[in-house]
Specification:
This protein has helices at residues 22-31, 48-59, 87-90, 100-107, 126-134, 166-176, 192-203, 235-248, 263-272, 310-317, 337-343, 373-385, 396-401, 405-411, and strands spanning 2-7, 12-17, 39-42, 63-67, 72-76, 84-85, 109-113, 138-142, 145-149, 158-160, 182-186, 207-209, 215-219, 227-230, 250-255, 274-279, 282-287, 297-298, 323-327, 347-351, 354-358, 367-369, 389-393, 415-420. It has 421 residues and is of the alpha/beta class. Bound molecules: ligand EPZ. Ligand EPZ binds next to α1, α5, α6 and α12.
Amino acid sequence: MDSIVVKGGTPLNGQIQIAGAKNTSLKLITAAILTDEPLTLTNVPRLADIRTISDVMTSLGVEIAQLEGGRVMVMSAANLTSHKAEYDLVRKLRASFQVLGPLLARTGEAVVSLPGGCAIGARPVDIHLEALEKLGATVELRDGYVHAAAPNGLKGCEIEFRFASVGATENAMAAATLAKGTTVIKNAAREPDTVALADCLNAMGAQIEGAGTDTLTITGVDRLHGATQEVLTDRIEMGTFMVAPMIAGGSVELLGGRLDLIPCFADKMVAAGAIIEETPLGLKVTKGDGPILPVDAKTEPFPGFPTDLQAQFMAMMCLSNGTSVLEETIFENRFMHAPELLRMGANVEVQGGMAKVHGVGQMKGAQVMATDLRASVSLILAGLAAEGETIVSRVYHLDRGYERVEEKLRAVGAQIERVSA
Ligand code: EPZ
């Protein structure tokens, strides 16, 4: 199993190319099920999660051609051979559950394994299922699988989510594109990934209005057609690399970076002492002269502070010159990086969904263990400033969502390498 070894203390300077967004790509890939014509995606990141969703699609009979080393994917669902997404694939990647809405809308039937809980929380799918029932599907849970059927097609309806779930919004929106009549989704997710999916579906002939607001209006159409869509910049990879020069010192230009994708996070970075400039190629983030200042943050749906950047922000707050309070409201168990940061000399008190982070002047390298994707990268970030060597094990979590993170950081001066055991 691979580990990442980081030696702290070198400032970072240079440019980092931000990849296409993992969470956008995963949803755009599943949209290919909705049409018998090819859907082409460009700027797809090369990640383990993309390989897993591709396996799910292939298992359904979708043909996939990968061009330009995987950056371009051409998918054809002309001959779907199955409407069942098996447990062995879905358990590896929760986002596989996003085939449910497209399969149901296209074939009138879908059997998809329940994804189960995961390290960051229970993550039920009740909101997804209620939405599909409102659209006229019958939904049954049997043998660990969701069996959904709408033999006479789905029907437009009004859905009001109790929580603006990203996945449920995307499943319901995708399904509603082929429903008869108009569907209105209230309290919909406004995440850039959700907007990107709406843009892709519209390019395929769907009629979706209101993407990026909390109300989506989807007028059903008889069929969708092929399209070519570019995957949006990964705002979470971008936020992660914004933290890196704050922790290590220096100045890094993030190619393809866009402030509008993480407005609240960018404000918090500035409050902590980052200098952020928009450049013709993206964003430049420089650590200001003073210390890292303590900043409180509470995770919220977009445009609030993203839960997927909370671990990285905590790594930075561990080095602030005061106490900050981080509140996690999206997932019930997303502070697993805290005990690992403590091993590096951090001072963090976790109580339920709150973490009180008392800044320490210096962290120390240690052997630490990645518990999930964002936790693993927070440990690498902490290692950039720690005295001595930090060894992060279980980095398969990292490879699910970051493309060559060690190469990108090494190119701007970090002392970091991957070691295969
Ligand atoms: C997406 O997960 C992202 N994943 C997550 O990114 C991200 O953390 C999350 O949105 C929030 O921004 C992908 O896009 C593939 P939700 P999703 O449905 O869709 C509860 C990463 O690190 N809920 O908005 O699963 C749920 O349990 C990952 O890249 C229900 O109760 O998020 C959670 O507490 C991790 N019932 C909250 O809502 C439901 O039916 C948010 O979930 C659905 C969700």
